Amino acid sequence: MSIDIRHLSFSYGPLLALQDINLTLQEGRFNALLGPNGAGKSTLFALLTRLYALQSGEITIAGHSIARHPAQVMRKLGVVFQQSTLDLDLTVAQNLYYHAALHGMSKRQAQPRITEELARFDLSERRQEKVRNLNGGHRRRVEIARALLHKPSILLLDEPSVGLDPATRESLNQHIRQLCEAEQLTALWATHLMEEIQNDDPVSILFKGRMLASDRASELCQQYQCADISSVFRSLTGVTP
Amino acid sequence: MTLRAALICFNGLLQRELLRFVQQRSRFFSALVRPLLWLVVFASGFRAALGIAIIEPYETYITYEVYIVPGLCAMIILFNGMQSSLSMVYDREMGSMRVLLVSPMPRPFLLLAKLMATSLISLLQVYGFLLIAWFWGIEAPLLGYLTALPAFLLVAMMLSAIGLFISARIKQLENFAGVMNFVIFPMFFLSSALYPLWKMREASEWLYWICAWNPFSHGVELIRFALYQQGNSEALMIVSLVTLVASVLAVRGFQPQQGMGKR
């Protein structure tokens, strides 16, 4: 199950935000989408999650066209937004039950899934705690647990590490990698931080609405004769990351 | 979408609204202050000035307080409906609306289910107000509180749908103050909530016609009749029709994906 994007363009009035984007995610892998702020990452996520309608081009998710079969697509998709979308005044469990209901899961169906996901993210003891009382790292983990409740095959994460301290960022990154391996989950991790990318990761570099390169990080380094992905980024954009 | 999934989804939305309502008890009480001020202060002051002749559905002369109670119930629903619709429009890029919009359920269903859930919650406030009014000596027939329930719900759906449509379409109404000045107050004052329309006709023929065309007037009358266990088929027809049209327009006008692109 993967995402296939073909000739995708999007503009806000006269402002072109995405220009002829082509991208195929590698199945069961941690795919990184690298781009500075304003590159068009959030616009791409808004299109992938059907917040914006397609203007031109096509997106196929898990074999279904997003424009023609939105319900099938949304069932396969788990999303972690850049800004927190948890209800702060509700408990962790209440937030998760709400999400499950939105996916048509009854309480009886949701309960074992919630227990399972909270245990996976080491949050079992926080189940009845109000989200307001959790720190940033825990809130993020709750959001990822929530996105996985309905067992999606693709997980979209829009700058999930923003606002977290380096240690939490690192552990979150590792968590998602383990998930990809254990569950054959395809993840798209948007970031502007080079240190979150490993040599073996498929990486796409988005800059000013254009997809400049898309390949394995080590391949890109070889192709552009650079020591690391930061140098590749610099040589492609002329900008220091 | 199966019926079972739809029911689970609606139930989830309703439970969330209910939990938020319980969490925000202070908002509940402050929402009651407004209609109670009208009832206890305004109506008491005007009781002497405004005599109400026998009009349907009342069987006898009534005091002004008795007259304005249905209008004040509608006012609670109006404020709540507009507030929740406005927040739906302005939250769509973040927060709870984004979570709602990534659900695989059809979007028109999600929007209408959300409107229905918030409408049901605002009925709790209406009944809270009616209970205090009852202690204040304004009693409707006991069964009337039950027969008014569907009327409250229909009016709540109509006003939320109008609110959603207006706030999605008219970008200038970007905050609640704008909605209050240009939607809530005109709708409330140009209606039969505070004065019977024949009184308005004595004052001005054209104002009367505006009030008579105002769907809120028909909502108030539907509630007034239902509270006294009577039907008002004209009001029912108009409110149902406006609810239907406003819901269709609201769902079409909301279209988050397109509206967003233009912003």
Overview of the molecule:
The complex is a heterodimer of chains A (241) and B (263). Chain A has 241 residues and is an alpha/beta fold. Chain A has a domain at 1-37 and 53-68 and 153-163 and 186-241: P-loop containing nucleotide triphosphate hydrolases (Rossmann fold, 3-Layer(aba) Sandwich). Chain A has helices spanning 41-48, 70-76, 92-102, 107-120, 136-148, 166-183, 217-223, 229-237, and strands spanning 3-12, 15-24, 30-34, 56-61, 64-65, 77-80, 154-158, 186-191, 202-207, 210-216. In chain A, helix 3 (92-102) runs parallel beside helix 5 (136-148) and helix 4 crosses helix 5 (136-148). By secondary structure, chain B is an all-alpha fold. In chain B, helix 5 crosses helix 6 (144-169), helix 6 (144-169) runs parallel beside helix 11 (233-254) and helix 10 packs across helix 11. Mean pLDDT of chain B is 86; it is low at 259-263.
Task: Quickly describe the structure.
Chain A is α/β, with parallel strands linked by helices and 241 residues long. Helices cover 36% and strands 25% of the residues of chain A. Chain A has a domain at 1-37 and 53-68 and 153-163 and 186-241: 3-Layer(aba) Sandwich (Rossmann fold), CATH 3.40.50.300.
Give the topology string of chain A: H per helix, E per strand: EEEHEEHEHHHEHEEEHH
Count up the domains of chain B. Answer: 1
Number of strands of chain B: 0
- Major sheet: arrangement of strands of chain A: 6-7-8-3-9-10
How far the N terminus sits from the C terminus of chain B, by CA atoms, comes to 31 Å
Q: Kindly provide the radius of gyration of chain B, computed on alpha-carbon positions and rounded to a whole number of angstroms.
A: 19 Å
CATH class group of the domain at 1-37 and 53-68 and 153-163 and 186-241 in chain A: Alpha Beta
Largest sheet of chain B: none
Q: Give the rounded overall mean pLDDT of chain B.
A: 86
Helix content of chain B: over 70%
Structural class of chain A: alpha/beta
CATH architectural name of the domain at 1-37 and 53-68 and 153-163 and 186-241 in chain A: 3-Layer(aba) Sandwich
Average of pLDDT of chain A: 91
